[in-house]
Design brief:
3 helices; globular; eight-stranded mixed sheet; mainly beta; 399 residues; six-stranded mixed sheet
């Protein structure tokens, strides 16, 4: 009896000792984090107020909110990797008048390690004026009844999110040169000033040829043909508003549908969207003519790849010309955004992993924020594609 009691006591002591040891080893470490905010450049700022900061733990998904009374603040958080979002108000001077605007900031993958940690975020003026927005991107393509991939039916839908008539004439579609799945330290880093692009296609027109009513969309596709002949999972795109067409034997042209004008294209064959996503897309209005752009907007950069320094020439497209942008990836391969946070602070997707076959026959679609009394839909536009878009959506042309 004594021996049994002794064994029990020893076992209980062993458990307690082990529990205490595990608790000490696994104790959550905290850090005092100092955040410094930098005012937007080229603005005569008089005050910044009502600053709300959200810290999202990348690993756990936990959100922690805090307020700041100035441009520097401290908060105690668990060590970890965080995405940080800042929103607030700002007064600034324009033509000797005080203007109130909304200010935002965003930084991803901020590593909080040690008893103290610090970082800074550059704020930007958030323009909430309604304009065209990217409503939908169908990039993954369709499947045949046998389950094989079918391409050529990729499309964009561009939506008039304002309460007045807008003209699509001259509107350009951009595709990023850089991918959201592979990050390099490009030198010089111009992301805060411009988007590095590989394709620029423009809607034709003299300025007022293509009106778009409030709450209406234009459909821009790769090939404006009846794709349902090849597979019932696709669409009849013969009534698209525009198509992008490269004048060579590999492309198909529908003469009844206007072609986009090619400002710049890096391909010598045909432009197809990356069917896993992995790119950013944007719409914009050119600030200069085509000839001036091609002459003055080259971007030479260098980066290190596998120990070798690579030097490349690309084209840059000023952020100030861009109306709307969306980063796309698949969830597993996403590593960074390839446009400035002032254009997009998030990303959206159709696939969970690389080569996810479930991505086919799906699109990314912007969410509806509200509906006006006359039935016009207002689409959500917070410059954060994670919040603004429905991932893995049913294409609108299927509904």
């Amino acid at each position: 009896m004594v021996n049994k009691i002794s064994y029990v006591l020893v076992f209980m002591l062993f458990i307690c000792a082990g529990f205490i040891a595990c608790t000490d080893d696994d104790k959550v470490k905290i850090t005092e984090f100092t955040l410094t905010l930098t005012e937007p450049e080229d603005l005569n700022v008089t005050s910044i107020s009502d600053l709300h900061v959200t810290f999202k733990n990348v690993n756990t998904g936990k959100l922690t909110t805090n307020t700041m009374t100035g441009t520097t603040g401290k908060i105690t958080l668990n060590e970890g990797l965080y995405n940080i979002t800042v929103e607030g108000k700002m007064n600034y001077i324009v033509d000797e008048k005080t203007v109130e605007g909304q200010v935002k900031g965003y930084k991803e993958s901020v590593n909080l390690v040690g008893t103290t940690s610090a970082d800074n975020i550059k704020l930007f003026l958030f323009n909430s004026k309604a304009d065209f927005v990217i409503e939908e991107v169908y990039f993954a393509g369709s499947t045949t009844p046998e389950g094989k991939q079918y391409s050529g039916d990729q499309y964009f839908k561009i939506y008039n999110n304002s309460d007045s008539v807008l003209y699509a004439d001259g509107l350009v579609i951009l595709e990023s040169e850089f991918t959201t799945s592979r990050q390099y330290d490009y030198t010089p880093d111009i992301m805060s000033q411009a988007m590095t692009v590989t394709h620029i296609y423009a809607v034709p027109g003299n300025g007022k040829e293509y009106p778009v009513q409030p709450g209406e969309s234009i459909l821009i596709c790769d090939k404006a043909i009846d794709h349902t002949i090849a597979t019932p999972n696709s669409f009849d795109l013969r009534n698209a508003n525009f198509e992008w067409y490269n004048d060579n034997d590999q492309d198909v042209d529908n003469p009844m549908v206007p072609n986009l004008d090619i400002i710049y294209s890096s391909t010598l064959t045909i432009w197809t969207l990356n069917n896993q996503g992995l790119k950013a897309y944007a719409i914009a209005r050119m600030g200069v003519d085509k000839q001036t752009y091609l002459k003055d907007y080259l971007y030479e950069c260098s980066y290190v790849n596998s120990g070798y320094t690579m030097t490349r020439n690309y084209y840059k497209f000023p952020n100030e010309w861009i109306i709307d942008a969306v980063n796309i990836s698949n969830k597993a391969q996403y590593v960074w955004n390839v446009v400035d946070p002032s254009l997009d602070m998030g990303f959206t997707y159709c696939g969970e992993v690389a080569s996810d076959k479930n991505r086919y026959n799906k699109s990314v679609r912007r969410k509806v924020l509200s509906t006006t009394p006359d039935g016009r839909k207002i689409l959500k536009d917070t410059n954060n594609s994670t919040e603004d878009f429905e991932a893995k959506a049913t294409p609108s042309l299927k509904q």
